[in-house]
């Protein structure tokens, strides 16, 4: 029997928790267990997303392959890894796999789902009679308040602190249904912050432009590190009574295990913050380029040829002489900019 088969059978209840083998770099990636609720969620999300992409293609409308890959690999793939890989096999006997699980569901998976832009896909793929109510629901007052970055950041922080510093986490280790609910809570809390920033601008106030979003993402990166720091430096052992009873003989000291988990939380939180900030900056640059292009088109439309003033001498050849242009809008609008430009004219 291979180590992977042994672990899967252990997770199914045929062996005691203390018989789990010590995880090694070679065996750890090969150990998996089935999580039916998580698999159902991944199947539903992936099926709906695939239906939307297929519907757009049938109408001849393109949808970026990169967005589909981000949604499937980084989004849904992270959910699978967090709930069915060796992290899920060992989360009931070691704290650090559970901590990594929670960070993946809270930060990494929402980033992947948001990069897939599922909200825009849904609004484009759904029939108009269905897309209208969905759009109104997404832009409702309650959703806008919850999705505001400062509010959602506090919700993410409160969610993680509630998990680790109340009986919630230890109870979830005993109750499988509550454990699944905790997974869903972390995923929704993280998505509530990332989705408005990267997808639907309608969920944010009009003054929340790209510079403000970049500042909010930077601030959120600092906030996301708080739970890991608190876990790593806490003097009390989280779910200590549970892990004392279920830790294998080869397990490290409970405090060392918790410090390892807290360090992993801080590291992953900061690693996720960097690409998220980069995505916001890329969107910022694209928005500036689009604004500049629109302004250029407006100026080209306003700089129309003006008729030449009559004067002595032979009439100019219309095919060789360039016509005089009317003054642009910034010299004729009567404002401060126009006055300054008029003074600078020779």
TrEMBL record:
The keyword S-adenosyl-L-methionine does not apply. It is found in: Cell membrane. Residues 304-329 are annotated as: Disordered. The chain crosses the membrane at residues 36-56, 68-87, 107-126, 146-169, 181-198, 218-243, 263-285. It is a multi-pass membrane protein. It comes from the Bacteria. Residues 307-317 have a biased composition (Pro residues). Keywords: Cell membrane, Membrane, Transmembrane, Transmembrane helix. This is Cytochrome c oxidase assembly protein. The lineage of its organism: Bacteria, Bacillati, Actinomycetota, Actinomycetes, Kitasatosporales.
């Amino acid at each position: 029997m291979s180590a992977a088969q042994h672990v899967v059978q252990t997770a199914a209840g045929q062996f005691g928790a203390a018989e789990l083998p010590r995880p090694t770099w070679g065996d750890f990636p090969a150990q998996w267990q089935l999580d039916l609720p998580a698999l159902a969620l991944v199947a539903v999300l992936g099926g709906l997303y695939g239906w939307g992409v297929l519907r757009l293609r049938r109408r001849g409308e393109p949808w970026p392959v990169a967005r589909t890959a981000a949604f499937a690999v980084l989004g849904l793939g992270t959910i699978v890894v967090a709930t069915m890989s060796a992290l899920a096999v060992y989360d009931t006997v070691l704290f650090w796999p559970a901590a990594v699980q929670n960070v993946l569901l809270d930060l990494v998976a929402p980033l992947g789902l948001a990069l897939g832009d599922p909200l825009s896909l849904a609004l484009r793929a759904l029939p108009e009679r269905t897309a209208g109510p969905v759009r109104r629901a997404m832009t409702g007052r309650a959703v806008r308040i919850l999705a505001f970055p400062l509010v959602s950041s506090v919700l993410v922080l409160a969610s993680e602190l509630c998990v680790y510093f109340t009986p919630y986490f230890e109870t979830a280790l005993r109750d499988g249904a509550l454990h699944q609910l905790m997974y869903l809570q972390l995923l929704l809390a993280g998505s509530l912050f990332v989705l408005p920033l990267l997808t639907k601008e309608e969920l944010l106030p009009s003054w929340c432009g790209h510079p403000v979003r970049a500042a909010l993402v930077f601030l959120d990166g600092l906030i996301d590190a708080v739970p890991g720091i608190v876990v790593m430096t806490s003097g009390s052992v989280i779910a200590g009574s549970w892990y004392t009873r279920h830790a294998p003989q080869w397990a490290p000291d409970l405090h060392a295990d918790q410090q390892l988990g807290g360090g992993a939380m801080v590291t992953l939180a900061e690693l996720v913050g960097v690409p998220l900030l980069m995505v916001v900056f890329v969107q910022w640059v694209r928005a500036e380029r689009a604004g500049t292009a629109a302004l250029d088109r407006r100026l080209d439309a306003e700089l129309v040829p003006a008729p030449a003033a009559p004067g002595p001498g032979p009439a100019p050849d219309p095919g060789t002489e360039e016509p005089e242009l009317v003054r642009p809008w910034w010299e004729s609008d009567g404002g401060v900019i126009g006055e300054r430009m008029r003074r600078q004219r020779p």
